[in-house]
Amino acid sequence: MSVEELELLIETVQGTGLTYMMAETSYYRPEVITCRQWAKEGKFGVIMYSEAEYHHEGLLPLADDDRGLPTWRYGFRPMHYPTHSTGIIIPVIDERLVEVQAVGWGDGHEIVRTNEYKNPFWNTTGFFKTSRGHCARRRNAGSSTAIGCLT
């Protein structure tokens, strides 16, 4: 997304009076629902650190279409669309992620060498500061989701 596209989205919402919602599927995972409920009930106490991982196998075959042309999955911008894992953390801790430092990993595969974003990483790990000064870690990678809360 570009800044212009985001501004258009905001203008559309303001001009129509409609509500924009991004329905991140991780929010509805059973373990996230349970953790949200437990947090609401105070079972965790103060959550000072949270982390989530979202692993998604099988993306490499989706990088090219039937004609061998690159699809939208042929490389991503670094730290673009981290919501599969941040969508696990944010609803549980009920804070915003306000700062991030990220570390990426790539192996020199053709996709990480030639994608339009010049992104050399397959995945990134983000270390976040939350709106209340706590810490959170998220990682998106190439089969299961894990959530951890330490109090």
How would you characterize this protein structure?
- The protein has 151 residues and is α+β, with helices and mostly antiparallel strands.
- The protein has one domain (24-150): Dihydrodipicolinate Reductase, domain 2.
- Helix content is 27%, strand content 25%.
- Strands 2-3-4-1-5 form a five-stranded mixed β-sheet, with helices on one face.
- Helix 2 packs parallel to helix 3 (83-93).
- The longest helix is centred in the N-terminal third of the chain and has 14 residues, at 3-16.
- The protein starts with a helix and ends with a strand.
Oligomer: single chain
The CATH architecture classification is 2-Layer Sandwich
Tally the beta strands. 5
Strand content: 15-25%
What is the averaged pLDDT score? 86
Our count of helices gives: 4
- The domain count comes to 1
* Rg from Cα: 17 Å
Helix content: 25-40%
CATH fold category name: Dihydrodipicolinate Reductase, domain 2
Return the structural class. alpha+beta
Poorly predicted runs are 142-151
Can you write the helix and strand succession as a string? HHEHEHEEE
CATH class: Alpha Beta
> Could you tell me how far the N terminus lies from the C terminus, measured between alpha carbons in angstroms?
36 Å
Give the overall shape, derived from the CA principal axes. globular
Biggest sheet statistics: 5 strands, mixed
How are the SSEs ordered, and which strands pair?
Elements: H1 3-16, H2 30-40, E1 49-55, H3 83-93, E2 97-105, H4 110-114, E3 123-130, E4 135-141, E5 145-150
Parallel strand pairs: 1-4
Antiparallel strand pairs: 1-5, 2-3, 3-4
Helix pairs in contact: 2-3
